[in-house]
């Protein structure tokens, strides 16, 4: 009985690992500004 239960859990794990949900994109205004940039050589 343990072998069959383990197979069922492994199958469910594979289904969950392979499932994909589209990420939700949210824009949040934080009121900041860029006042300096790093040099390209850094």
From TrEMBL:
Record's protein name: Coenzyme PQQ synthesis protein A
Record family assignment: Belongs to the PqqA family.
Pfam families: PqqA (PF08042)
Keyword terms: PQQ biosynthesis
Pathway as given in its UniProt record: Cofactor biosynthesis; pyrroloquinoline quinone biosynthesis
Tagged with keyword Isomerase: no
InterPro entries: PQQ_synth_PqqA (IPR011725)
Its biological purpose: Required for coenzyme pyrroloquinoline quinone (PQQ) biosynthesis. PQQ is probably formed by cross-linking a specific glutamate to a specific tyrosine residue and excising these residues from the peptide.
Keyword DNA-binding belongs to the record: no
């Amino acid at each position: 009985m343990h072998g069959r239960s383990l197979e069922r859990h492994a199958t469910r794990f594979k289904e969950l690992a392979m499932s994909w949900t589209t990420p939700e994109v949210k824009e949040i205004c934080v009121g900041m500004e860029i006042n300096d940039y790093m040099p390209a050589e850094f």
